[in-house]
């Protein structure tokens, strides 16, 4: 199968400097709301790129669960490969691919662990089955077959049947505090609109337009 000739024009619209908010987080929230209203599938899905201790790069899709204290929030198993990579190098990148709107947002920032209080608050809001699944999965470790996971899930359902599912001490949130945020809007004839915010200090950002 050949891919060289596959292309389409981006006609969803342009992006101008005067249409941007002074804050990249507020601008992101506007775009996310538009993605949700457009009915996109999984508009909060984002690719998380990390670097392992040996310098190897990896990425995976995780779900954005909020924006708080100036950062993008997601939750995971703290024993997972992604958490180990963040412990080795907290610099990460996020990518939100909103293809149906000819848009993407790229974030470069530093990931920091959230407090146990914040993590517990979210954990207790999850469906019960998802809470139990957090206990059942030894994330990123080999498993002989899916049947082993299902058996562990059944065992834990019985174990926790009498009350609330406790919050695992190996599970919680990360907040990615952005240092650079790029907003990309596809344009006709590949003349895309790109604007990048670069952090100056805690409250202010420099905004530049980049060539496509």
From TrEMBL:
It catalyses: pyridoxine 5'-phosphate + O2 = pyridoxal 5'-phosphate + H2O2; pyridoxamine 5'-phosphate + O2 + H2O = pyridoxal 5'-phosphate + H2O2 + NH4(+). Catalyzes the oxidation of either pyridoxine 5'-phosphate (PNP) or pyridoxamine 5'-phosphate (PMP) into pyridoxal 5'-phosphate (PLP). Its cofactor is FMN. FMN binds at residues 60-65, 75-76, 82, 104, 139-140, 184, 194. Residues 171-212 form the Pyridoxine 5'-phosphate oxidase dimerisation C-terminal domain. It holds the Pfam family PNPOx_N. This is Pyridoxine/pyridoxamine 5'-phosphate oxidase. Pathway: Cofactor metabolism; pyridoxal 5'-phosphate salvage; pyridoxal 5'-phosphate from pyridoxine 5'-phosphate: step 1/1; Cofactor metabolism; pyridoxal 5'-phosphate salvage; pyridoxal 5'-phosphate from pyridoxamine 5'-phosphate: step 1/1. It comes from the Bacteria. Residues 32-157 form the Pyridoxamine 5'-phosphate oxidase N-terminal domain. Belongs to the pyridoxamine 5'-phosphate oxidase family. GO terms for molecular function: FMN binding; pyridoxamine phosphate oxidase activity. Binds 1 FMN per subunit. Coiled coil: none annotated. The keyword Zinc does not apply. GO terms for biological process: pyridoxine biosynthetic process. Homodimer. It comes from Chromatocurvus halotolerans. Its EC number is 1.4.3.5. The keyword Acetylation does not apply. Keywords: Flavoprotein, FMN, Oxidoreductase, Pyridoxine biosynthesis. Substrate binds at residues 7-10, 65, 122, 126, 130, 190-192.
């Amino acid at each position: 199968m050949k891919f060289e000739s596959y292309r389409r024009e981006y006609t969803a619209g342009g992006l101008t400097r005067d249409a941007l908010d002074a804050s990249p987080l507020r601008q992101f929230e506007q775009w996310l709301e538009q993605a949700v209203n457009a009915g996109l599938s999984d508009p909060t899905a984002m690719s998380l790129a990390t670097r392992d201790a040996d310098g190897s790069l990896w990425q995976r899709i995780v779900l954005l669960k909020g924006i708080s204290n100036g950062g993008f929030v997601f939750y995971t198993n703290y024993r997972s490969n992604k958490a180990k990579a963040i412990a080795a190098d907290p610099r990460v990148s996020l990518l939100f691919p909103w293809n149906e709107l000819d848009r993407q947002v790229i974030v470069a920032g530093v990931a920091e662990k959230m407090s146990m209080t914040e993590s517990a608050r979210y954990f207790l809001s999850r469906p019960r089955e998802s809470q139990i699944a957090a206990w059942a999965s030894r994330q990123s470790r080999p498993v002989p077959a899916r049947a082993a996971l299902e058996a562990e899930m059944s065992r834990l359902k019985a174990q926790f049947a009498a009350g609330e599912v406790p919050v695992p001490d190996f599970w919680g949130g990360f907040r990615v505090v952005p240092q650079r945020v790029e907003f990309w809007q596809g344009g006709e004839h590949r003349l895309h609109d790109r604007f990048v915010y670069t952090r100056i200090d805690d409250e202010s950002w420099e905004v530049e337009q980049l060539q496509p």
